[in-house]
Structures are given as C-alpha cells and as structure tokens.
Amino acid sequence: xxxxxxxTKKFGEKVAVDDLSLSIAPGEIYGFIGHNGAGKTxxxxxxCGLLRFEEGKIAVCGHDIVADPVGAxxxxxxxxxxxxxxxxxxxxxxxNFVADIYGVGGERAERIKALAERLDLYKDLAQPISxxxxxxxxxxAVIAAWLHEPKLIMMxxxxxxxxxxxxxxxxVMMREHCDRGGAIFFSTHVLEVAEKLCDKVAIIKNxxxxxxxxxxxxxxxxxxxDVFLELEK
Amino acid sequence: xxxxxxxxxxxLASFKQIYLGKSKTKSGKERNKALILAVLLVYVTxxxxxxxxxxxxxxxxxxxxxGLDWVYFAMWALLDFAVMFVGTVFAxxxxxxxxxxxxxxxxxxxxxxxxxxxxxxxxLVINGFINLIISAAAGxxxxxxxxxxxxxxxxxxxxxxVLPLFTLAMSALFGFLISLATRRVRNxxxxxxxxxxxxxxxxxxxxxKSTTWIQSLSYMGGxxxxxxxxxxxxxxxxDAVAKGDAxxxxxxxxxxxxxxxxxxxxxxxxFFKNITTVRSAAxxxxxxxxxxxxxxxxxxxxxxxxRFVSSSGYMLNAGFGAVMAVAAGVLVLVxxxxxxxxxxxxxxxxxxxxxxxxxxxxxxxxxxxxSAPSVSLEGKSLWILRSSPVDAADVLRAKLKFHCAVSGVxxxxxxxxxxxxxxxxxxxxxxxxxxxxxFVAFEGLLGLLCNLKYPILDWExxxxxVKTGMAVFIAMFGAMGAxxxxxxxxxxxxxxxxxxxxxxxxxxxLAAVDALLYRRLVTKGxxxxxxL
Lengths: 233, 532
Hints:
The structure holds 2 protein chains of 2 kinds.
Chain A: E1 2-11, E2 14-24, E3 29-34, H1 40-47, E4 55-60, E5 63-64, H2 69-74, E6 76-79, H3 91-101, H4 108-118, H5 134-147, E7 152-156, H6 164-179, E8 183-187, H7 191-197, E9 200-205, E10 208-214, H8 215-219, H9 224-232
Parallel strand pairs in A: 3-8, 3-9, 6-7, 7-8
Antiparallel strand pairs in A: 1-2, 1-4, 4-5, 9-10
Helix pairs in contact in A: 3-5, 4-5
Chain B: H1 2-20, H2 28-65, H3 69-97, H4 102-106, H5 112-143, H6 150-183, H7 188-219, H8 221-228, H9 232-242, H10 246-276, H11 296-310, H12 312-318, H13 320-334, H14 336-344, H15 353-366, H16 382-386, H17 392-421, H18 426-453, H19 462-467, H20 470-494, H21 499-530
Helix pairs in contact in B: 1-5, 2-3, 2-5, 2-7, 3-5, 3-6, 3-9, 5-6, 6-9, 6-10, 7-12, 9-10, 11-17, 13-15, 13-17, 15-17, 15-18, 15-20, 17-18, 17-21, 18-20, 18-21, 20-21
C-alpha cells in the first residue's frame, strides 16, 4: 500500500529524514513514533506529495508520488497535525468540495451523514468552519479523509484536540478501515494509544529509522514506552 | 506602564506589518520596505496637502473678503472632523470591538484598560496624521495672509489638538453601531463591503465635488454663515480662533472633551464585557439537502468564488476595479455629449475618442487584481490542494477563470456602455469588447505569475496577503505600465494606419502576450505551485 525506499529529505544543510525505508501492507495500522523534530511530519508530508525530497522513492498503491502525483493522491487521504481548513466555507460545503475533487458520486450524502453522525458533527455542518473549535475542525478533517474511501490514510497526531468519545470513535474507524483492506499510517506521541492500536510501529530518531516491525518485534515483553525511552538515550 | 508601552509598540508594529508585510530579520529587504513606507507617507502627505492647501486658500480669500473669518475656521473644523471620522470609523470597529487577539492578551497579566488604551492609541495615530495635514494646510493658508491674535493662534492649536479626541469618540460610537449591525448577520463580509463602498462612494463624491462646493460656498459666504450659525459648536470654534474669544474657546473645549471623556468612561466600563461576550449570527442546524456532483474544475472555481465573497478586504481591495469599470462605463454614457463636444473642438482628433476610451477600460481592468493575492490566500490551508488529486495547472486555471469572470463581466458591461455612448460601428463594437477582455486575461495571468514568484503564505491577517507583497504591487503597476505601452503602440501606429487597424495591432500583440503567459502559467507556474 505504501512503499518508502531510502527517503532522504534535507532542509538546507539539515538532514530531516535520512535514508528511511519502510512499507505498509493492506490491513495494517502503522504507528510512527519519535521525539519532536525527529522527522515524522516531514516523512508524512513527503509521502502525500506536500514536500519534495532529494533522494529515494515513494509509491502509494503502486503510484510513484513524484512521477504520478495525481494517481497517488487519488488513493490516499492526509490529515495534518493542525487542521487548517477553508474557514470561509461551512462544514457541509467543505465536504462537498472534497467529494467533488475526489469524484465521489451520488452516494456522498449518505456517507457524509453516516460519518458526521458517528463523530457527532452532523447538526453543525451548516456552520462556517471559522466558528468551529479545534476539535470540531479535527473531526471535519477526519470525515473529509474518510469520505472518498481512500486506500491509505495518513494522519499526523490525529488524536490531538479530540474529546474522549471522538477519540474512541476514531480508533474504531481506523480499525474498521484496515479490516476492509485499507491501511493507516499515523504519527503520535501517545505511546499507550500506539501500543493498543497499531499492528506495526516505527521509531524515528534524528531523521533515521531506529527500529520498525510488528508491535511484538519492537517491544517484546517490555512496554513501548520503555523501548522508546531506551532508544532515545 | 511598561505593559502599556509594550502594547503600543505591538500596535505600531502591526501597522507596519499590515502595510509592508512581515520581516523576520533586519535585512536589506526590511530597509527597502521602510524606505517604501517613508516614500508612501510623503506621497500621501504631499498629495492631500496640496489638495487641502488649494481648498483652504480659496476659502480664506473668499471668507476674509466677506468678513466671515469665523466661517473659515468652522469649515476647517467640519472638514477635519469629516475626513478623520471616515478614515477611522472602520479602524475603530475592528480595533475596539472585533480584534482577534483579545483572548491572547486577556490571558496575560495585562489590565483590560491597558488593552483599551493601546487600541485607542492606534486610532489616535491615524486621526493625528490626518489632522496634521488638514490643520497645517488651514493654519498656514490663513496665517500667511491675515493677522492672527496670539489668543486666536492658541485657540487654533488647542482645538486642533482636541478635535482628534472628539472624532475618536464619534468613531467609537459609530464603529460600535456598524459592528452591532454586521456581527449578527450571516453574510458579514458582504454587509461590510456594502458599508465600505457606501462610505467610499460618499467620500469620493465629496472629494470630487469639494472644489466646486467650496468655490460656491466661498461666493455664498452669507448663506454658509447662516447655515452654520445654529450649530453652536461650529460658531464657537469659529469665534474662538477668529476673534480669540476665551469664552467660546472654553465652550468649544468642553463640547469636544466631554464626549471624549464620556466615550472613554463608557468604553472603560464595558470593554471587558464587550470583548468577552460572544455575539454571532443565530446557529443554524444542518438540514440534509442534495448537493449536485460537480467536476473538480467547477469545484475549484466555486471555492475561489466562496473565498472572494467571504472577505470584505479581498473584495474591496482586489475587486474594486470591477466596480470602478462599471462606474466609468456609466459615467461615459452619462457624459457622452460632453465627450463628443470635447473631441470635436479640434484639440484632440475625434477619431482618438474611441481608442482612448478603450484604453481607459484596460486601465480599469488593471485595477482589478483578484488573481494577484489568490495563491497567497491559500495560506496555511495550502495542504488541502497540495494533497488532493488535482493538477497544479487546474488549480491555477480555476484562479484565472474566477479573475476573468469577475473582471471580465464588469469590463464587458463597461465596454457595452462605452460602445452605446459613442454609437460605435460594428467593427468598433468588436474591438471595444475584445481588447479589454484580452487585457482582463493579461492582468489575471500577470497577477498569478507574480504571486507564484512572490507568495506570502505565513500571513496571520489575510489583509497582509491582499494588500502587501510584491505580487499585488507588480501586477497592478505592471499592468498599468502595459496599458501605457499599448497606448504607445496604438499612437505610433495610428500615424500610418486607421485608428481601428492600429487597435487591431494592439489586439494581436496582447493576444500573443496572453498566449505566452498562459503557456508559462500551466508549465513553469504549475511547477512553482507544486513546489510551494
């Protein structure tokens, strides 16, 4: 579903991501962990075509993100760490915009209703996004990501700003998405969430992938927190 | 006190940021920007100064000759107040009642009173600047011709110092009323734009007519005096300065200072409540309705339209030329007889009339720069388009199309009005429509390419994207330069060719430039957008 080979991204002299390789198969929830500035967001942004990179290759569902960006983007959805949406639109207009861009047909109304009711945002869809709280914007970004039924969903700190109920709903939605054959690649600082939710995990430090694999392979009998703290030393 | 000073510094810095954009380092660029600001200030001061010097010079002569010295100073106070009021009423609205950093400041150990004082200070700075130009013009034009008593001079200075405070009180009051009227409506930006256009229209009308009015008023000093006499305040101001009347001065100062003191007192008592009370349009619950499925190109176009109508700043600054184009068309139609008379008196050949009007339409199109800040306006939400499965060229095409739709329709209306006004022949109809439309496309393309070269994506206030930056500057003035270049080409060719044929040459030239720019937009421009 996602194949990253020897990704290197520099900002001037600083190497933000250094020769990173990993791959995500259908049905996997893949957690991406690292300290602030480790290179998680840079990797995620490179995967969805928001950043150009110097070396390496990224393929999303077989589409090279550099050679065929539109084809690759059609199969993925991205939620950034800060949901800066179009504040001048209402929630429903934003969702319709996204649906039009991804070519979602007549079934969009049912999908929007189901997703928005699930995240308790349905009644607020007529409000302008500028009046939404951070959590509501995050929910809208989640609905927009799920709306076109992408194969791969990439999220940067998706639980920040969500209330406990929505946070739980999102975890369930993530699992359901993967059970339907999709894949999730997300970054988080909440190690307990990663430990409970992820099938696989990768830890990045100073741009380099330190360890990756199934949860059992990475943490063994210890907790993910212990492993992470040990690797950070 | 140090908190207040810091707040005032922040307010002054925000002024600089609004007009010149952000600078992260003290680089040569910042020095250049400071120089541009200084030049701009000098330009505004000199332009307005010359205008007011002319007006006051005329009034001084006329009123002094009729022994109506007091009317001169009453007119000065009235004009000074009117210009300050129009100049600051919207600043008062946003600074006092709708500032976005109130929560941030209230969370800090800052007294609400200090926040209020720093905001009042901002408005006073604008008032002070306007007041300085007008009062200096009025004072100088009187002093150089007529004797003034020391008491009169002191009264003039005192009134000039106090008048901005009185205006501040009135701006605060009307700013509150406008804020109250707009905050509960859903289409706030449209209402604000209408308010602004009405104010601007009134202002332009007054400025346009001021010289004629002042001329007439000067000859009708007696009538003016009769009209102003019942307004006690104006009478007192006039007598305080013209006659050095201490009693009138005391009454004037009381009348000007009491509203100010009351306004400050009320604002001080209500400021915290005002800025912490959420007043918004009634919450509308979503009711399911069907939305048609659009093509992505149409969705992108609609998104541009929604962005445009959501922002009064964007509409007013970038779309103003469209309003002016229609207004110019109407003006040409209304004044068609005057135009034909002017062009038939032999000073300018009559065959120049149509090409000059068409060039004028291009100039109006040059003032509509909707596309120039459109990339910058994506700001922090640029990730949406960049992560979506749309070609960068399609995004840019949508921005261009929207620019052409707004400016094109306005220019088309103006073209039709001009063609009707001059009773154009069929060939002239074609030329009068095609050339301005090609220019609309040129302005749109130039704006987009400039914005891709000089984007501002880290703005905090969208006015930074709309008003500042090289893109808007180059697009507007570059396009104006292009109008003169086209005019030059036409003028050069018209010596050898018939006027219409020379216009055809302009059309061919512009079409070729448009094609080249379009090619560049969808290739290099799209690459630049993808790399932002």
